[in-house]
Amino acid sequence: MTQSNVPGSDEKVIYKGGPSQVVNFNTFTICVILFLFAIFAPSFWDKFFNQAYGEFREYYMMVCKVLFFVPILWGGWSWLKIRCHRYTITTERLKEEEGVFSKSTDELELFRVKDITFVEPFSLRVFGCGNVLLDTSDKSTPLVVIYAIKDGRDLIDNLRHHVQVMRTKKGVREID
Fold first, then answer.
1. What is the mean pLDDT of each run of 10 residues along the chain (176 residues)?
2. Cα–Cα distance measured from residue 78 to residue 81, given in angstroms and rounded to the nearest whole number
3. Strands 129-136 and 113-119
4. Which end of the chain has fewer CB atoms at under 10 Å, N or C?
């Protein structure tokens, strides 16, 4: 745990991280398939279709060159978007930053959290990840989802404790 940069505050960071790259699994798989196609397809074309469709070889080679770079750019951009998505949870608030070139930051005071749910879809559970869903009383973000994080069960226990502390500190009570 580290101290917050707010002078005179005893706010401490309890979690800092981002979504796992597992969320990009399908994108990365498609990129690898397209990349391999771009590498091996020209030799396949020359071996089997050069005699019958030789006049289309130039167009086909151009498509293969494009398919060589597209998966690299697409996979790189997908990786970068997840890499730039960050969550910082302190003893008083949750801060979510996202964006590669233009950043967007959303903050949520912990005393506004009404309910915490941990969801483990099979595709994430295989890799030890899950999603934390926060039902809040905040008007702008009534549902906050912390996507694909490791050790989510430990986080929700810690988060639940700090939500109760902040509710007590602020004198907040939920009325249904």
1. 55 94 95 88 70 67 82 96 96 95 95 94 93 93 94 92 92 76
2. 5
3. antiparallel
4. C
Would you say the C-alpha torsion 79, 118, 4, 12 has a positive or negative sign?
negative
Residue with tokens 């101290």: 3
Measured N-to-C along each axis, helices 57-83 and 25-48 cross at an angle, to the nearest 10 degrees, of 170
Round to whole Å and give the CA distance between 82 and 100: 9
Q: Which two tokens stand for residue 107?
A: 């903050």
Nearest to 130 by CA among 145, 115, 114: 145
Q: What is the CATH number of domain 13-19+85-170?
A: 2.30.29.30
Q: Pick from 29, 42, 12, 79: which is nearest to 50 by CA?
A: 42
Contact 115, 156 (CB under 8 A): no
- The SS3 call for residue 139 is coil
DSSP run (H or E) holding 45? helix 25-48
Q: Which pTM does this prediction carry?
A: 0.80
Q: What letter represents residue 125's amino acid?
A: R
